[in-house]
Amino acid sequence: NPNWQPGDGGELKLWTTIGDKTGAFVLIEPRMGTLVCFLSEDFWPEVLPARQTRMSITGWFRER
């Protein structure tokens, strides 16, 4: 997202309290060149509505 500007939306919201979507969270802007890695079992992710086109790539690592 090379032309992303504050106010365009589309931020990744990560709730930092395990199993609780009412506590603390961090907002990560969808800026070009940003890599975010987290354990999905420990953090609840949410993507906020975007007012501009927002591109992302998502992948999952699994362990058996």
Describe the fold and architecture.
The protein has no helices and 3 strands. The protein is mainly beta. The chain has a 3-stranded antiparallel sheet, with no helix packed on it. 3% of the residues are buried.
Largest β-sheet summary: 3 strands, antiparallel
* Poorly predicted segments: none
Count of strand segments = 3
Q: What is the residue-mean pLDDT, rounded to a whole number?
A: 87
- Continuous helix count: 0
Alpha-beta content class: mainly beta
Give the spatial strand order of the biggest sheet: 2-1-3
Please write the string of helix (H) and strand (E) elements: EEE
Fraction of helical residues: under 10%
Q: How would you briefly describe this protein structure?
A:
This protein is an all-beta fold and 64 residues long.
Summarize the SSE layout with pairings:
Layout: E1 12-15, E2 25-28, E3 44-47
Antiparallel strand pairs: 1-2, 1-3
List the main descriptive attributes of the protein structure presented here.
3-stranded antiparallel sheet; mainly beta; 64 residues
